Amino acid sequence: MKLVDEFRDPALARALAARVVARATRPWTVMEVCGGQTHAIVAHALDALVAERIALLHGPGCPVCVTPLETLDRAQRFALDGGGILCTFGDMLRVPGSAGDLFAARARGADVRVVYAPLDAARLAARTPERPVCFLAVGFETTAPAVAVAARWARQQRLDNFFLLVSHVRVPPALEAIAGAPDARVDAFLAAGHVCTVMGTAEYEPIARRFRKPIVATGFEPVDILHGLALAVEQLERGEARVEVQYERAVRPGGNPAARALVDEVFEVADRAWRGVGVLPRGGLVLRAAYAALDAERAFPALADVAVAESPECRAGEVLRGALRPPDCPAYGRRCTPEHPLGAPMVSSEGACAAYFRFRAAESAA
């Protein structure tokens, strides 16, 4: 409790915010990459503390939000048409596909179950050999090791009824795409500390050098975020652009070697579509050939035929790129609400739209 209290200390937060404002000799724009950071910023009004000099943009740091529409439709098709059991994390149930969410699919008879770890889904497959079981594998590099554990265990057990519908995405290519965009407005990034805990910081070094933008691996508490912001602003003021670690209690430059080795055993890097963003080169992970038997899209050819179009009314892609603040979307709070979302950012626990709807009710009503 003492550690948590330390990183939520109001006096320390205010002192760091004052340090940020005092060190900034001109306006700077900084993007936080993680949805957890976004929720902390919005909930504690950290952006208001530094608004005199710093504009904070919310980035694509919600893996649920960037999961392609096709992946959600494939998951529903597996559960509805294949007679199988679809397992997923709880935050995927409300994410809308082209014809509703997984709650709606469950109401139509789909067997959709919430699990707390991918290995739970693999063990369910071992207990029910007469039915196919598929785990919807989404997330950044942080959740990939747990999925790799389940894949390795299923292979060791020679399960022939366990599958993975993989939609893992990688953060560095997203930062590179945002930094290199013609209309890029970002001067520095606060990188997701949990991703760096697993993968380390080496992949961010060439991005910082190439685009001359500081990247600070930052934690998720208010003091973490303001400290990371202070480090980024101090680099900008000195004309530096390098990778720095604020989240030292968890992040090492080399990451977690055991977790990285496990991910590398099961997955390989590939181009990947991000919902609302497009296909990013080397933007995700796919199963290696040795684990191809677990690939749901290969095992069930009907899943590969799914192709859908995004709602023209939903501007989640602009929100995820930091080009649009949630309250500035015409549909926000009107046609798009947590009860009737047009896009994932309104219902994900890390979505920027959900953060504003929950913590900025007055602004939402304006």
Short overview:
The chain is α/β, with parallel strands linked by helices and 366 residues long.
- Which value, in Å, is the CA radius of gyration? 21 Å
- Shape, per Cα inertia axes: globular
Gross CATH architecture of one domain:
3-Layer(aba) Sandwich
Q: From the helix content, strand content and strand pairing, which structural class follows?
A: alpha/beta
Overall pLDDT score? 92
Broad CATH class of one domain: Alpha Beta
Number of strands: 11
Low-confidence stretches: none
Strand order of the largest sheet: 2-1-7-8-9
Name of the CATH homologous superfamily of one domain: HypD, alpha/beta domain 2
Number of helices: 18
How do the SSEs run, as a string of H and E?
Answer: HHEHHEHEHEHEHEHEHHEHEHEEHHHHH
Helix content: 40-55%
Main β-sheet description: 5 strands, parallel
Strand percent estimate: 15-25%
Under CATH, the topology of one domain can be stated as Rossmann fold
State the oligomer.
single chain
Secondary-structure map with pairings?
Blueprint: H1 2-6, H2 10-23, E1 28-32, H3 35-43, H4 46-49, E2 54-58, H5 69-81, E3 85-88, H6 102-107, E4 111-114, H7 118-127, E5 133-139, H8 144-156, E6 162-168, H9 171-179, E7 188-192, H10 193-199, H11 205-211, E8 215-218, H12 222-238, E9 243-245, H13 257-266, E10 267-274, E11 278-287, H14 296-299, H15 301-304, H16 316-320, H17 352-359, H18 361-365
Parallel strand pairs: 1-2, 1-7, 3-4, 3-5, 5-6, 7-8, 8-9
Antiparallel strand pairs: 10-11
Helix pairs in contact: 2-12, 3-17, 7-8, 8-13
